[in-house]
Write a structure and sequence with these properties.
By secondary structure, the protein is of the alpha/beta class. The protein is 37% helix and 22% strand. The protein contains 10 helices and 15 strands. The protein has helices at residues 16-30, 35-42, 46-58, 79-82, 87-97, 113-121, 134-140, 165-172, 197-209, 247-256; strands at residues 32-34, 62-65, 68-71, 106-109, 127-131, 146-150, 154-156, 161-163, 178-180, 185-187, 191-194, 212-217, 228-231, 238-241, 260-262. The strands form 4 sheets. It has a 7-stranded parallel β-sheet with strand order 6-5-4-9-12-14-15, with helices on one face. It has a 3-stranded antiparallel β-sheet with strand order 1-3-2. It has a 3-stranded antiparallel β-sheet with strand order 10-11-13. β4, α6 (113-121) and β5 (127-131) form a beta-alpha-beta unit. The chain is elongated. GO terms for molecular function: DNA binding. This is DeoR/GlpR family DNA-binding transcription regulator. It holds the Pfam family DeoRC. It comes from Vogesella oryzagri.
């Protein structure tokens, strides 16, 4: 837990509503809470805190983990809405991520708004590119140095791309060198997650089929959870993060062993 800034203790800790409001604020600030620390800070039993966390988890605020809870991902809204959020951060992440590419590689660009910026930042070199994202395919239209395959299947408006059986069958025939995987959340314990079950299954297939998995992740996704698991962090070849990511989160990620690549500062 980040202890650099502390929220004021609620006035009446005997009321679950006051405690839970404090926990919500702490989750928003730190992304994670520990039951023992909460009990000590609020002067109540750990049983009371565990009940609070169960109720907050049931309402979708957090996910229970051993010893406490972790915030749920803020990654909501349609693809179109999300494509206008944190654009400058995504552009910087993309500029760092494309440095990993080499001429002649087979690249899979998974659907996602950060990956859309990666598509726009692709260097002028011969690449074979496959994607299930319609906006990404559109962004590559006219760039004739790329051999582009658009994976078919059922289009999901929430992710701006195709998923499902038809898309999975096409991907099963592919062996990309590198995959830029889209994600909704990243956590050292819970790994990579997303908010849609069918999308999670598609991403798990990508992890199996691709030689390298690279994630470019904005700050608000770090240390959060999603309803559906994709893969543990140890399956990730490189995690591209922002230069101003919370130091304690960076330290946790470094401790997990996943190689980090930092984007340039804004």
């Amino acid at each position: 837990m980040n202890t650099d800034i502390r929220l004021p203790r609620p006035g009446n800790t005997s009321l679950p509503s006051d405690r839970q409001l404090y926990i919500r604020q702490l989750l928003l600030q730190d992304g994670r809470v520990l039951a023992t620390e909460l009990a000590q800070t609020l002067g109540v039993s750990e049983d009371s805190i565990r009940r609070d966390l169960r109720e907050l988890a049931a309402s979708g605020v957090c996910k229970r983990v051993y010893g406490g809870a972790i915030a749920m991902t803020p990654n909501t809204g349609s693809f179109s809405e999300r494509s206008h959020e944190n654009v400058a951060s995504k552009v910087r992440l993309a500029a760092a991520a494309v440095q990993l590419l080499q001429a002649g590689q087979f690249v899979f660009l998974d659907s996602g708004t950060t990956n859309l910026e990666i598509a726009r930042a692709l260097p002028d070199m011969p690449l074979t590119v496959a994607t299930n994202s319609i906006p990404i395919a559109a962004a590559l239209l006219g760039r004739q140095q790329f051999d582009v395959t658009l994976v078919g299947g059922r289009m999901d408006h929430r992710i701006g791309g195709t998923i499902g059986t038809a898309a999975a069958l096409e991907v099963q025939a592919m062996r990309p060198d590198i995959c830029f995987l889209g994600t909704c959340s990243v956590d050292i314990e819970l790994g990579i997650g997303t908010t849609i079950a069918e999308e999670a299954a598609f991403k798990r297939l990508l992890v199996r089929q691709c030689s390298q998995i690279v994630l470019a992740v904005t700050n608000q996704k770090l240390g959060t959870a999603s309803p559906f698991a994709v893969t543990p962090l140890n399956e990730v070849s490189r995690l591209v993060i922002e230069a101003d990511a919370e130091p304690y989160k960076v330290q946790q990620l470094q401790g997990s062993g996943v190689p980090l690549l930092f984007a340039a500062r804004g």
